[in-house]
Design a protein that fits this description.
488 residues; alpha+beta; Beta-Lactamase; Helix Hairpins; Heat Shock Protein 90; five-stranded antiparallel β-sheet; 12 helices; 12 strands; rod-shaped
Amino acid sequence: MKSIYFKNFSATAAMVVMSFLFLGLVLVFLGRSYVINSYRAGMETNAQEVSRSAQALASDGELNDWSLRMTLSTVSQTSGNHIFLSDSDGTVVSCSDMNIACVHLGKQLGEGVLSALRANGQLNQITTLGSFYDKPHYVVAQPIRSAVDDSVIIGYVFVTADTATIIDSWDTFLVVYLAAAAVVMVIALLMAFMTSKRMAKPLDEMARATRHFAHGDFSVRVEEDDRTDEVGTLVSAFNSMADSLEKSEQRRNDFIANVSHELKTPMTTIAGYAEGLLDGTIPKENEDKYLAIIAEETRRLSRLVRSMLDISRLESTGTSLTRRREFDLLEVVITTLLSFEDRATQKKLDMDLQLPENHVNVLGDPDAITRVVYNLLDNAIKFANEGSTLTVALWKTDGKAYVSVRDQGETIPESDLPFIFDRFHKSDRSRSLDRDGVGLGLYLVKSILDAHGEDIAVTSRDGQTEFVFTVMLAPPAPKEKAAKEKKK
């Protein structure tokens, strides 16, 4: 399997090469024309300069002056062009060649060349000048006017260049471009190599980590550096996801282990007593006793399954906002207390109710909050000492309603308090006293309140354990709000 780095670098390198190829094609089609046009524009400039010089240096209309010929030679050597002058009849009278016996002197230009010059006032074309040259040349020609009378043409200046000369100029430019392009392309590929490697390294690590995740290993992490770009953000988010997955997997394993442990005990008890009843090991006169134990263990299994279903539903969907409405928390507390009247009487508990006289309207899911009050009261009555006082209080302040449930019994060890709301957690006192519990009641309480965005706190000292939770107060009705403002 190819690494992400290799794929990324291959794609980047292909883009770089394609960019330079495209630029090269553009240069071939447009650059060549630009170079040729620039060269011919330079020839036109030379022709104009030579024409002005000839006009100034020609004495009595004579163009074969030696100083003028030196000027032609100098311009020719500077520009690389061949320059010569002809009189008005087309006879070459001066040339840029340094040879005194120049072969061009005295040559006669064709009548077609002169006709074109006279008709257009200039010449700019590829031609042999009527067999003046053996092969075609780029030719630029301008008239030379008399210094005395500008309307009189005393001759013509010809600036010519072999087509090969201009092509050589283009070839030189092309070679320079190709050399520079090759250097730039190598640098670009090196930079692409380094950038791709830096960008793809964490992506490769993430790919390897996901393969480990697929096999159940959530301990792998991607190395984080100081980069602040999108890849750095992705790496940080990936590691956060990995932490969450690892914790979820750990919770799942713990949950399965705890459920297996909690199910094992009642199922073993039920199976053992059932087999004893079937094979006659248990005497007939004791059958009712053990059937009652089987029934109680069955109810305990039912409570465990029901609690697990409630927790699963809460964790998957949360407390739906559509079920939240305004309700009277005081009514919920009183109704729930009434359901524990028989159990409180059996344990001879003295109920200390610190409840307000007026309604306490709150916002939330009434069924879920009822479950919270029920579980806290059930827990308090279960662990309260016989004949002790159970205190239930309700008050409101700063936009919150507070419910307190306090029992008098064995103190919860301080080391257990941070874990009291964990799933299947049981403190030492509950292990010794709570045979019916499954360790999910307080976890469910905490989950419901977390879904509501509310808090719960627990304190346990000197034989008193108190749970206090909050619920948001409902906003006052318009009439009630107006009455309060008027009262102020």
